[in-house]
Amino acid sequence: MSKKTAVITGASGGIGLELARLLAADGYELILVARRAERLQQLADELAHAHGIAVHVMPMDLARPFAGEALWRAISTITPDIDVLVNNAGFADWSGFADESPEVIERMLHLNISTLTSLTRHVLPGMRERKRGKILNVSSLAGLQPGGPGMAVYYASKSYVLSFSRSIRSELRGSGVSVTALCPGATRTGFEEAAHAERSWLFHWTRPMEARDVAAVAYRGLQRGSAVVVPGLLNKVLAMVWLLPAALGLELNRFLLSERR
User: Fold this and answer.
1) How far apart (Å, rounded) are the C-alpha atoms in residues 248 and 79?
2) Angle CA(10)–CA(187)–CA(203) in degrees, nearest 5?
3) For labelling alongside 37, which of 54, 63, 158, 237 has CA 20 to 30 A away?
């Protein structure tokens, strides 16, 4: 049998790292992408040694304009035939919009939306032609919410990822290609410290899931071809905030995202 190849962005830590381990254990050859070259190489060495697979590392800043195009050109020098694409890279900033750095906003939009969209567009034609392939786009529990006062751009970007994933999944019905949106809640990845969200009531009142557990649920959903995956019972309950009137949901989220004094 020919080798299967998976691309994982944001693979140097958290959910992306754990998904890389699961894919490697299933015999996928890997193309790992993230900014942190040293951590990527350590993971590549670990997985190649443990599973006897080829692992390619691509240290790249995917928050730059046209990063998706540049990444696809680099991937194509290895193989244009991608069996699994995991769009995991993303970041958040916990700040009122009027106080948020314009540069941070631009980078967040490029990474969370533009690069994900571009890379998906480049990978899809080959998958459709071969009549097989799986895509996992990492949205967030935030993507199911009416909005997130205090994290407005992040919540909006993750709503885009969820809507985009659902739409192209519908377009691809019957093609042999599946698109899955992962909507994790609070997860121990280092993400919360980077976004400073650990000071919020949301992280105070909820017990974050371990990245390994989230990845395991996500991987099962990916292999089944599920449309949307929400790991954890509490997160499934919190996801139902969208059932509330939008004004009430926004007020609830504003409180949950406010800083504990």
Assistant:
1) 49
2) 130
3) 158
Q: Read off the pLDDT of residues 183-222 as tens digits, 9 standing for 90 and up.
A: 999 888 765 554 455 665 466 556 789 999 999 999 999 9
Q: Which residues pair with 55 in a beta bridge?
A: 30
Q: What is the pLDDT of residues 14-46, one digit of tens each?
A: 999 999 999 999 999 999 999 999 999 999 999
List Cβ neighbours of 243 (8 Å cut-off, separation of 6 or more).
none
Q: Which of 186, 136, 170, 115 is nearest to 19 (CA)?
A: 136
| Predicted structure pTM score | 0.90
What domains, with CATH codes, occur in the chain?
A: 5-256 (3.40.50.720)
Instruction: Say if residues 62 and 33 touch (Cβ distance below 8 Å).
Output: yes
